[in-house]
Amino acid sequence: MKEKLSALKDVLLTLLFLPLILLAIIGFLVFTPIDYCRYKRTRYYKDTRAKYRWFNSLSPYVQLYDAVKKSGLPIDYHPSDADFCEGYGFFTYKGTLILNDCSPVFDEEENTWTVEVADKYVDLQDEIARTVAQCNAVLGENICQTAAVLVDSDLLEKHPDIALENLTFVPVKEKDLGAALRQIVQ
Predict the structure, then answer these.
(1) Tens of pLDDT along 50-62?
(2) Between the CA of residue 43 and those of 61, 66, 126, 134, 178, what are the distances in Å?
(3) Do 124 and 113 contact (CB within 8 A), yes or no?
(4) Threshold 0.85, pTM exceeds
(5) 3-class DSSP state of 115
(6) 3-state SS, residue 160
(7) Are 120 and 93 in contact (CB under 8 A)?
(8) What is the DSSP code string of 83-114?
(9) Using an 8 Å Cβ cutoff, are 164 and 124 in contact?
(10) Is 80 in a helix, a strand, or coil?
């Protein structure tokens, strides 16, 4: 009797999860060619000819590169294959490192800003200082002294009092990176 129940349980679990697995596979099979085509049309690919990786067109680095080039602003791009920048590179403007892949979270218990790194939350200011130091080390010179973090404008509306040393938050409204980048250059 236990064997029949165990077999029935296995069959039911298979019937339950098989459609979900098939749906995920079909989703990847449909989305991958679409993402590949989107990536091939990006300015980042046209300039660098970097090899395609899954979800490349959704990468914050690729989106920032395209926004910088589209807006024609004098923001420098420094390519790098360092692991911590996922092989893309750094964006700098007059001593400021521009970051687009940072999602700060306010920790009300600690009364501090944090960011998720490797599945744990760390102090935002410490993480940005570490990233600036890594950028300078990879580039071989002390190019960056401060950082500008592009964040969703809704976050700044909820917490208008954000002020951290050597760090500027630049609001991005409705994914308009060009307007946010123009604020940095002004």
Answers:
(1) 888 888 888 888 8
(2) 12, 5, 32, 26, 14
(3) yes
(4) no
(5) strand
(6) coil
(7) no
(8) GGGTTTEEEEETTEEEESS---EEETTTTEEE
(9) yes
(10) coil
